[in-house]
Structures are given as C-alpha cells and as structure tokens.
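Worked example 2:
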Amino acid sequence: MKKMLKILSLCLALVMAFSVVPVSYAANSEACPLVYVPGISSSNLYHDINDPSTEYAFPSVDEVKRMVTDEIAPALIVYAADKDADKLSKVISDQFNIIFADYFYNADGSAKENSGAILKFPSTVSKNSRLRLDWDWRCDPFDAAADLDKLVNYAIEKSGCQKVALASHSLGSVVILTYLSVYGDDKISGIVYDTPVVDGVNYLGEFLVGNFETDGEALMSTVKGILGASEDRAFVESIMDVFSLAGIPAGLSEVLNSALDAVAPGIFRDTLVPLFARWPSIWAMVPESDYEAARDYIFTNYLTDADSMKLKEKIEKYSDVRSARHDTLLDFDKEGRFAVISRYGFSSLPLMDRWEETGDTVVHTKSSSFGATTAPYGTTLSESYLKDKDAKYISPDKTVDASTCLFAEKTWFIKGIQHGQTGATGVLYTSLLFGAEEATCDNYSLARFTAYDAESDSIIEDDSEPEKGGKKSPFEVLFNFVREFIKKLLAFFKIR
C-alpha cells in the first residue's frame, strides 16, 4: 500500500510539474478571438455616429486633380510672375481646407458634433473569430483604448474564452499600448505589432516645429520607392542617374527649398496646424526626444486660446504612457506572447532632413523595430561595424542589424513592403499568436529577414545582396541609360 502511495505521489508530482512549467505556453496556444486594431485612415468616419448613411471618405483622386489643375496650377503661374508668397499660400490653404473640411477637430481636441467612427459588435463571436476595432484615428488614445476595452470584454463574454489576442498596424500600436497602461494585460493572451509607432515617427517631431526641407535626391528616392519592383524601375533609375550626373538634384533642391521657405509658413499656420495638430493621436506619435520642443512651439506660437489648453492637457496625459512604453511591453512579454514585424528598404518622406534613414516610406526601421541599427538609405553597414557581429542578426543586404532591437529574438523584418500594405503581414498574425509554442526567430518557419513579392502579395525568402559600394562612374551611368533606353524602344516596337 505504501509503495502504491509512493507511486501515486510520484505520478502526481510529475503531472503537477509538467502542468506548471509550460502554463504560459499552454494558455497562449489555445484558440481565442483575435482583435485587430488598424492604423490611421483605416476606419470609416461618419458625420453622425448614430447614422451609418453619413459616412465620409478621404478626397478622391478626381477631387485632388481638380484642385491642382483648376486652382493651384494657375496660382503657381501667378506666383512665378509676382512672387507673392502670401497669395499663393492662401490659395493652397483654402483649397486643402475645403477638401479636408470633414477631418478638422475642435480646438480642444474633440470630434466635431457627433462625428467619428462607429464601434461595431458582431452578433456572434467564437474562439476562432477575428474582430476589428473601428475607431476614430484622430482621437485621444485613451478614448480609443476605452473602446478597445469594450470590444475585448464583449469578445470574451460572447466566446466564453478567458482571453483574447491583439494585433495592430501602425497607429493601432498606440491604442494597444494605452490599453495595457490603463486596463492591464489580464485579458490578453498575445500581441503582434506590425510596424508599430509607439517609439515615434521621426518626421512628426520636425513637422510640429515647422521644419520643412527637401532634397532632390530624396525626391528621386521616393519615386524609386513608389515604382518598387516594377518593370519600369531600371529605366527610371537610369534617367535619375543621368540627372544626378548633370547636377540636377542639387539645383532642384535649391528651387524647391526656396519655394518652401516662401509658402510653407502660411500653409503651416492656416491648414496644417488647425488640421493635424488638433488630433491627439498625432501627438502620441511624436518621438519622446522631440515631444517637449514640439509641444512648446505649437502651444506658444499657434494654439494659444483656452480651448487649446484643454487639448494640451489631453496630450500631456499620454506622456506617462510614452515614457513607460518599453517597460509596459517588456512586462507583457513575460506574461503573454509578443512579436514585432518591421519593414525596411525605402527612404523616408522627401520633406524632412531625415529622409536618408531607411524605413517603409513612412516609419523608420529603427523606430518600428524598437532599436535596430540601420545604414543610411542606399548604403550598407560598414565592414568595421560588422566585424564582430553575429551574422544571424544582419540582413542579407547588410543594411540592418537586428541585435540591437528591444525584442531581438521576436522581431521579423520584411524588405520592400511599403507602410500601407497589410495583406501579406496580416496572414502572419494567427500563426505567431496561436502556434504550438511561442514563436522566436530561431524556431519559427519565417526567417528573421524576408522580402515582399508585390506580384503575389506574399512574403518570400530574401536573396538580395549588398549593393556595390561607391558611386557609378560617368561611363557606367551613360551606358546603363543607353541600354535601358534601347530595351524600351525594342519593347515598344515589339508591341506595335
């Protein structure tokens, strides 16, 4: 009998041991609802949230074309003759204020009247359901987090699950961070951050202190980014190389910056500040290092009325969330599954002096990956830097070092996918959140560094190689241009 009791006790001890050690893995691998929080401009907005027929949308391509051809282009011609910058900036501001009229917030950082997004609750929710938070992406992150809390509670109640998983793109990461800061993580099994902006978007800090500067090379880089892997890229690049050889970008930079110096102050004052600086969400994306300077500049020089002070109080409230962001996420990583998807391979916007920082055309890779070391766009990490680095953390093209990331083993990088493209990354969320074990770059089927295939809208193996160092010689530039030009001619006559 005693022997039997010893055997039973041993069995019970083993059962308890194996049930306690992997408890977080077991809980996280269970199916549960997934709530997706999209980024800026990804949810429909309505003039009246009680009336679904009042939806409004971003200006159409036709509206923008009409504005440019009928109003701005004639104003530019007049400006070329009279050099009246105030007149030109007023025309541009007036036109933008008309087509973006629906998107202005009140001075206190609240939605006008009863406008905003409609929070939707599906009639049925199962453990395999995928829900989406429709939210007003202009709003105070705390208001969005409150809506997320309602949806999380609803999903748990309807599905019978104890927890839900969360995934986000871009600005949606701020909503999840704020949710964790206010409501805790007891109801969350895992989080996937796709191109998060909780570390900030660099050019917003510059934008909110009125810093506008462009560069001819930056503009050409942006065009290359837009072309992606299209069949015209090589031909366009050969033309741009000829332009560079002829010194055109430098001259273009001078002309454009002269025009910006003349008209930007008026447009900034009359349109950009009243529109964007009143969105609390914009302030949540300002890097911590730039926040105080931007806040002081805007609220000292532009937004000085009593209502604007209420807005200032709102954005100040987020400061505590921002300053604790890494600790909040590190704490969650100890309790649930966490993964980050970052993007690289493009330069940034051509209107700021940080355009050479590699990113996804909108968010810099260093920011979206929580600390990756990157080479300036168009270059590679130096041999001296790479000398003692572990090769598994270095991208095939030698432009990104993942070892310096906050979550170095749980951050995946995709080359060649622009910021707004979410179809290919969306398919990753489920496997990252609900696999048999928590995914890391060492045990997951997706490599740490991959590439985006635009034709199939999928993620593929990254077989790219480092670009050749040094500038092309004049002979190479001209030879490439002639070669690509002949290819285009042959293709044209073949089609004809």
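The domain at 23-48+114-201+323-461 is CATH 3.40.50.1820 (Rossmann fold). The mean pLDDT is 85.
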